[in-house]
């Protein structure tokens, strides 16, 4: 995996199956155009934040659930060509999109850390952060140490990606989601677990681990967004 398209979107709670079906119908098209993996994860443990949160990122309504989704590609070139083809593919025009596309946020990201195995996931922790561009290496150093702790407590994969093609949106966008300033980059990251139970137990142990307490965060943690998501599609 050398490039990621990351999505966050609000879907009406009663449209879960319709959304899963639409995503599943899209999968063969994405694969045809070069995608190597597509994951759709349904909001399960998505807390409200004081400054920022996933619900605010997409202006989710009370009857909507936040979906955290990504598509992996072998290169940026393949991803961009796939996006161009998708936009012009007649099969896309016939698809029912059971959500408000204006509030979906999407961007292209370059992986800076990918530890573990990319298999089927049982549960996903998703994160968004605003990191000063000058602190990229410091962030990677911190993330590398954290990834080792995650894996010690059962995580099967830890991925950190750095904002590359992050467009401004009319209604919602990644920069607004984390209140990014002009000198900050968006980080889109996730942790894959074998199950929610392993994830819950892993987090408890991590909170007590001295390695996590010694962390110096080279970004504003108050604006970081996180949540737990249950996979509804992983192909």
Based on the structure given, which CATH architecture is correct?
2-Layer Sandwich
Point out poorly predicted stretches: none
Q: Kindly report how far apart the N and C termini lie.
A: 14 Å
Written as H for each helix and E for each strand, in order along the chain, the element string is: EHEHEHHEEHEHEHHE
Going by helix content, strand content and strand pairing, the class is: alpha+beta
Name the helicity range: 25-40%
Averaged pLDDT: 97
Give the C-alpha Rg: 17 Å
With helices defined by DSSP (H or I, 4 residues minimum), what is the helix count? Answer: 8
How much of the sequence is in beta strands? 25-35%
Count of distinct strands:
8
Count of discrete domains? 1
From the structure above, extract its key features.
single chain; 235 residues; alpha+beta; Alpha-Beta Plaits; eight-stranded antiparallel barrel; 34% strand
Draw up the topology in text.
Layout: E1 3-12, H1 16-32, E2 37-45, H2 54-57, E3 64-73, H3 76-88, H4 90-93, E4 105-116, E5 123-132, H5 136-152, E6 157-165, H6 174-177, E7 184-193, H7 196-208, H8 210-213, E8 225-234
Antiparallel strand pairs: 1-3, 1-4, 2-3, 2-8, 4-6, 5-7, 5-8, 6-7
What would your notes on this structure say?
The radius of gyration is 17 Å and the shape is globular. The chain has one domain: Alpha-Beta Plaits (2-Layer Sandwich), CATH 3.30.70.100. The model has no long low-confidence stretch (mean pLDDT 97). The protein has 235 residues and is α+β, with helices and mostly antiparallel strands. The relative contact order is 0.24. The protein has eight helices and eight strands, in the order E-H-E-H-E-H-H-E-E-H-E-H-E-H-H-E. 32% of the residues lie in helices and 34% in strands. An eight-stranded antiparallel beta barrel has the order 1-3-2-8-5-7-6-4, surrounded by four helices.
């Amino acid at each position: 995996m050398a490039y990621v398209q990351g999505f966050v979107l609000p879907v009406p709670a009663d449209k879960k199956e319709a959304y899963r079906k639409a995503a599943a119908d899209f999968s063969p098209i994405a694969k045809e155009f070069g995608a190597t993996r597509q994951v759709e994860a349904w909001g399960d443990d998505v807390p409200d934040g004081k400054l920022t949160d996933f619900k605010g990122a997409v202006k989710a309504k009370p009857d909507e659930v936040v979906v955290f989704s990504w598509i992996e590609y072998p290169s940026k070139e393949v991803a961009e060509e796939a996006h161009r083809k998708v936009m012009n593919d007649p099969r896309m025009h016939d698809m029912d999109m059971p959500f408000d596309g204006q509030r979906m946020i999407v961007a292209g990201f370059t992986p800076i850390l990918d530890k573990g195995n990319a298999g089927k996931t049982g549960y996903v922790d998703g994160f968004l952060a605003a990191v000063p561009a000058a602190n990229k290496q410091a962030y990677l150093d911190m993330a590398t140490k954290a990834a080792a702790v995650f894996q010690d407590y059962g995580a099967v994969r830890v991925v950190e990606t750095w904002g590359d093609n992050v467009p401004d949106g009319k209604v919602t966008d990644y920069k607004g989601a984390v209140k990014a300033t002009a000198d900050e980059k968006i980080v889109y990251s996730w942790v894959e677990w074998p199950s929610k139970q392993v994830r819950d137990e892993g987090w408890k142990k991590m909170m007590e681990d001295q390695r996590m307490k010694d962390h110096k965060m080279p970004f504003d943690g108050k604006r970081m967004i996180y949540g737990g998501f249950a996979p509804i599609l992983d192909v």
